[in-house]
Automatic annotation (TrEMBL):
Record field: transmembrane: 6-28, 60-82, 94-117, 137-156, 185-209, 221-247, 254-275
GO terms under biological process: amino acid transport
GO cellular component: plasma membrane
Protein name stated in the entry: Branched-chain amino acid ABC transporter permease
Natural source organism: Ramlibacter albus
Principal location class: membrane
């Protein structure tokens, strides 16, 4: 019991970060019905931008806000210049483009920022601790994830833009006929995904340190979280993130060891796709043929 509670707490804290990136994956999927395999590299690239802004003398939260805006613009530009041109391309072609985008961003980040491991500051004070189980940064990361989920929920539930994005995701042809600017909605979805991914990168960088490889494993866990919760469900992505974080910690500690923790996410992805492909909160799509 003495080791179980800390492992559960650490798993929840790590799961909050997975949930943030899973939420970004869901945003892109709801916009285009494709999985952005370059989401982790986009987050890593933007986290390096945040590091540069902080090193230039900006206060942390000013650099945080600036990075979120830059990430939003980056996501929208990628959609407008690249993804939009592939609207009618085969699925395999789109997957290849996503993988190419991953490699390109990874290489550009290495060229611009180098491959050395850097430290990244945490904005949360060291004076607060939850019963000795969670560090201030872990508490803050969970709080940020829940705040992002709340903003996303309110945006989609009550704002006119959110309603238009939901309509675009459900039926872009009908949405265009009633005056919705579908292209703008898709760019907005990608921009929001880029911003949410950047937040995830800035939350995980103080834990794993900042380098060009930092999001590789995180993306696998985030994808497992999105699949478990339902790839089209924002609340499901967050729930899936917390579940994956706890499972990773417990199974990695008590069953397979730290070296094989990544296999937990891979096994979970396969199991969910075989047993319940729609995920916990996703909707099964039935097509009459």
């Amino acid at each position: 019991m003495n080791t179980l509670l800390p492992q559960l707490a650490a798993g929840l804290a790590t799961g909050g970060i997975y949930a943030s990136l899973a939420l970004a994956l869901v945003m892109v999927y709801r916009s285009t019905h494709h999985v952005n395999f370059a989401q982790g590299e986009m987050a890593m690239f933007c986290t390096f931008i945040a590091s540069v802004l902080i090193e230039a003398g900006l206060p942390y939260w000013a650099a945080f806000a600036g990075t979120v805006v830059i990430a939003f613009v980056l996501g929208a530009v990628i959609e407008a210049l690249l993804i939009r041109r592939l609207r009618h391309a085969p699925v395999l072609s789109i997957v290849v483009v996503f993988v190419a985008l991953l490699v390109i961003l990874h290489s550009i980040a290495g060229l611009l920022f180098g491959y050395a491991i850097r430290s990244f500051p945490s904005p949360f004070p060291d004076s607060v601790r939850a019963g000795g189980l969670l560090t201030p940064h872990q508490l803050g990361a969970v709080g940020v994830t829940l705040a992002v989920l709340a903003v996303v929920y309110l945006f989609f539930r009550y704002s006119p833009l959110g309603l238009q994005m939901r309509a675009t995701a459900e039926n872009p042809v009908s949405s265009r006929l009633v005056g919705v600017r579908v292209d703008r909605m898709l760019a907005l979805g990608w921009g929001m995904a880029g911003a949410i991914g950047a937040i995830a990168g800035m939350m995980i960088a103080p834990v794993v340190f900042l380098d060009v490889h930092m999001m590789s494993g995180v993306l696998v866990y985030a994808f497992a979280a999105a699949v478990l919760g339902g790839i089209g469900s924002a609340p499901g992505a967050v729930i899936g993130g917390f579940v994956v974080g706890v499972l990773e910690n417990l199974v990695g500690t008590y069953v397979v060891g730290a070296e094989l923790k990544l296999t937990v996410a891979l096994v979970l992805i396969v199991a969910v796709l075989v047993v319940k492909p729609a995920g916990l909160l996703g909707k099964a799509i039935v097509v009459r043929v």
